[in-house]
Amino acid sequence: MNMVVFVLLALLAIVGAFGVILWKNAIYSALSLVGTLLSLACIFVTLEAQFLASVQVIVYAGAIMVLFLFVIMLLNAQYPSDEVDPLEWVAPAAIAGGIVLAGAIAYTAFLFKAPKPLEEAAKALQGGTPGPVGETLFTKFLLPFEAVSLLLIVAVVGAVALVKREPEGKQVRETLEERATHTPEEVVA
Questions:
Q1: How far apart are CA 90 and CA 94, in angstroms?
Q2: What residues contact residue 159 under an 8 Å CB cut-off, 6+ apart?
Q3: Residue 13 pLDDT more than 80?
Q4: Do residues 12 and 88 make contact, with C-beta atoms less than 8 angstroms apart?
Q5: b/e string for 135-161 if b means 16 or more Cβ within 10 A?
Q6: Helices within the chain (DSSP H only)
Q7: How do the domains of the chain map onto residue ranges?
Q8: CB 80 within 8 A of CB 24
Q9: Which of 1-5, 78-82, 148-152 has the lowest mean pLDDT?
């Protein structure tokens, strides 16, 4: 029975992940990501890691998704753009990066040897309670934890900086409107 529930939740997570990639509307993609994150939280519950499931819902499906939606609304990116892509090299670079990442994951999955037997690792987690998770997070993984927080701050500052920029068409339009208000003698002089 547990395997059937796991397979259903995993399929739901995969469908949500494809929705993130395939939707043209950024808001629909963000909502698909919420579905993926919630199904991942349910997988954590089936693995009896309730603390990780609650953190998944509160931090990722809650706070991070609110941040993503805030940036999407701030940038007015809910509608797909029909403009020509100014950075044509990004798509091939993303494909190459995805292939490298898939290779690294496959390499790790097939050659990884657990440093401890499964029973010892499960005892070390103590059911995913906050104490052991926090101790591990703030000792062994402090640098990656802080790097992610810095990355989120830079992303928000970058989004605000992009919004504050005036579009080029608006500057041209204002210049033309200023010229239209002047008399022909003022324009010649």
A1: 6
A2: 71, 74, 75
A3: yes
A4: no
A5: eeeeeeeeeeeeeeeeeeeeeeeebee
A6: 2-22, 26-46, 50-55, 65-74, 90-111, 118-125, 130-139, 142-164, 168-181, 184-188
A7: 1-79
A8: yes
A9: 78-82
Which CA distances in Å does 45 have to 9, 49, 57, 130? 11, 5, 11, 15
Q: What pTM was estimated for this model as a whole?
A: 0.55
pLDDT by residue (tens digit) across 15-69?
A: 999 998 888 887 888 889 889 999 999 998 888 888 888 888 888 888 888 877 7
Query: 74 Cβ partners below 8 Å, 6+ apart?
Result: 159, 160, 163
| CATH class given for the domain over 1-79 | mainly alpha
